[in-house]
Structures
1.
Amino acid sequence: MQIATRPANSSSEILAHLPRIGGVIPMYVDGEWRLAAGGATRELYDPANGQPIASIAEATEADVEAAIAAARKAFDEGPWAAMNAADRAALLFRVADAIDARRDEFSRIDTLNNGKPLRETQYDAIDAANCFRYYAGLATKPHGQTFDVPAPSQTFTVREPIGVCGQIVPWNYPLLMATWKLAPALAAGNVCILKPSELTPLSTIALATIFDELEFPPGTINVVPGPGATVGHALASSMLVDKIAFTGGTKTGRSIMQAATSNLKKISLELGGKSPNVVFADADFETAVDYALFGIFANAGQVCSAGSRLVVERSLRDRFVERLVERAQNIRVGDGFDPQTEMGPIISPLHRERVEAYIATGVEEGAKLLCGGERLGGPLAAGNFIAPTIFDGTSPNMRIVKEEIFGPVLVIQTFDDEAEAIAIANDTVYGLAGAVFTGDIAKAHRVIRKLRAGITWINTYHPTYNEAPWGGYKQSGIGRELGTYGYDAYTEVKQINVNLDVAPSGWFADRRV
Ligand code: NAD
């Protein structure tokens, strides 16, 4: 394995444009920068070297209540929902342009705070701008329907904003996950209270500076950094929040769903996965190897749709695995600021320990460790680095095969025929993503159509488009983000009936005379 280290740079220079109050990065509520009600703060650390990078206001339930009150007022009385779509769109296009103008800053903030390599965060920043642009365009394309009903009635629907949206996101794509939530919600005329992950709030604060500079009406967008159990739960359980949109783990999703029963708020859940990457013997060999690597080791496997189960045809298996291991061992792991780095660290010491515990479990369960499996030392010892890890000799009931590890750990499963490939692929409680590699296009379609998953690929892995729906079957979630589906998820549908024959109905007799 190769190791990449950091060129000189400083966190204070990278974070120079973020607001501070008394040295603390504040939250954004009701169009103002504020410290937490009780003054609590949280220290943020660089996952690549364990060094502190900034101190940020840690919201409390009182801060969430203030944000909800501001959002409520902004929606019920404020100009945002009433603003015409063209004006909303114009502002959102300006958000996209502002992200583009500050692309390097966004990229460097996420690399500092999350650890992922610059080339990934640069892509995330481009994607975030394009997501705002896509939804800015969609804002002016309302798509109600008219209905031919058996009565003298003009019957049609309009789509209206849901109202106050609580949005809770994870740490693995800090800027992008915030964008996937905010862009469609705002385009549809909603107001938002966004809770970034407590580990990676910085790029969301940078995003809030753009909303602030563009003078979005106060209360339209609120950012409350803080822990899930308090801040997230307060949003999910509030009687004044109309919708909760969540991306994160399936266990957390379940508790959010329960909390949301308080006022039966609308919910969208984008949850975990254990996605199969099925490789047939007739696949283009180097392409399949390449995407198998990309599927699991991009973002150090901390991707909900990661191809964490390689399901490979027995006749190809030995040759494929040999090449895969050789390439995995050559991945350049290291500091995300080194342009040579291909794979960065795990987000935190706690999560690194979780991934290490899974690796130990895999060994105890009797799986065969082909490569990796260890924490990296030397110049990377202070960070949370784990070597690209591949297990063979697995069986279906092993925990490493069934559970989401959310790290750079691939398990190999083997099949003999198409039916077995499908059965293995679907043998999971999750249903987020999956891929098939084969030169036989009919077989590719047959297998993909049998896959119980929401996002699928043929002869590729991971491409994600703002234009196309994203979400999972089974325990991978409820609803879809992105595309028109993502926009619709932030709207209520209102039926409007206009009587074209304005005369009494005569249902009840008129007995005046
Ligand atoms: P997590 O569920 O621990 O946390 C996600 C967010 O929820 C964080 O902001 C956290 O503070 C908050 N939270 C935690 N407990 C809460 C509670 N009781 N009430 C309200 N909010 C709470 O997940 P994570 O570790 O940050 O991220 C990893 C998980 O996210 C993985 O399971 C991954 O598959 C999933 N994920 C899914 C998608 C998708 O699109 N399906 C995308 C990215 C990540």
Note: The chain has two domains: 11-271, 276-458.
2.
Amino acid sequence: MDYFRYIDNRLHCEQVPLDQIAEAVGTPFYCYSQGTLERHYDVFRNAFANARHLICYSVKANSSLAVLDTLARRGSGFDIVSGGELERVRRIGCPGSRVVFSGVGKSASEIQAALEQDILLFNVESHGELMRINTIAGRMGTTAPIALRINPDVDPVTHPYISTGLRRNKFGIPHPKAEELYRLAATLEHVQPIGLDCHIGSQLTTLEPFVDAVKRVKQLLIKLRNQGVAIRYLDLGGGLGIPYDTHEIPPHPERYAQALLQELEGLDVTLILEPGRVIVGNAGILVTRVEYVKDGEEKRFIITDAGMNDLIRPALYDAQHTILPVMRRFDREEILADVVGPICESGDFLARDRILPEFHPGELIAVRSAGAYGFAMSSNYNSRPRAAEVMVRQDRYAVIRPRETIQQLFENEVLFG
Ligand code: LLP
């Protein structure tokens, strides 16, 4: 449930009409509903209320400070994948004890910075990384708390680019090699193996893959404990999907939690969860203005001022974001159309081959479900300044990131010679 809805045929974010924000801020802009963010976080947290757990929101989904701050105030911890994300969560005052560090390629300086912040857990993805963390922690005279990220080889049945838990993916330590690496970790002086981690993919719309993965890691956890490795944390990653269009209905967080907790019954462990999309995806939309409308031979092209540099998901994953008019009118015919951006690539579309109401130049379009991996994946391709971001709370809004200026685009550049 989110707080984007029509009031008198005018699309609102909470109580603020989106056309009013567009007039003041210009287009394109991302708009987040703070009430929705909080609601999604609360629903997720409440689903796990009966289990000892820590929610570590996955910063990569949307790393804007106002989003992180909203969730931190709710008690969220954070899952980070870079030194930049570490610095973001530090900026909003989150203590290291609520931070886990994931990712296959942690650099030496990132590891050192995370140790300086006393983070809760490094999710280690290779033998090389384990040895590197041990060396750096030794040099700093400290011990690093670690989990090994296991690749359980289960099929998450999602887009290949966002599947991570298959044998052929680069992520994690192959399940058959995990025990050996834990045994090695236990002998190292400057790492302390206290956790077990897995994340199998993103935008999962069924529970079975999660359950299969939990079964596998649970068996491993019990085996490790029997061998004297004191695993206290079980990190199950993120990945729960959201509805992008109406015929794709992923399980409610309540059912997701029930399924996981049922598998883990009797296991004395602190659960860590790393949800990203399910918290922020439907708490945000992208608002763009129609520049031109032109008829191709087969269909109409609605050309907007937002392009693939603003929202790359349709181009990259063939994602189906719902397209809505900001002003709903009932006198419009439905037509077959592509919503495309101004970028010089045929892959630059926000929606393809959709039946949509006719749009006219100057009108506003809302692209739904754009809160996760929207702004966070945006770029300056075609030397386009990145969009503004706005957050709404009830009847108030604020620009949480002004639109980039042309000047900012080349501020760090120098001529050669
Ligand atoms: N934990 C780890 C270790 C991850 O790699 C990810 C996402 C998450 C948690 C959060 O997953 P979520 O709950 O958001 O599914 N750009 C793609 C999604 C990439 C996901 C990468 N990892 C997209 O736009 O669909």
Note: The CA atoms of residues 246 and 275 lie 22 Å apart.
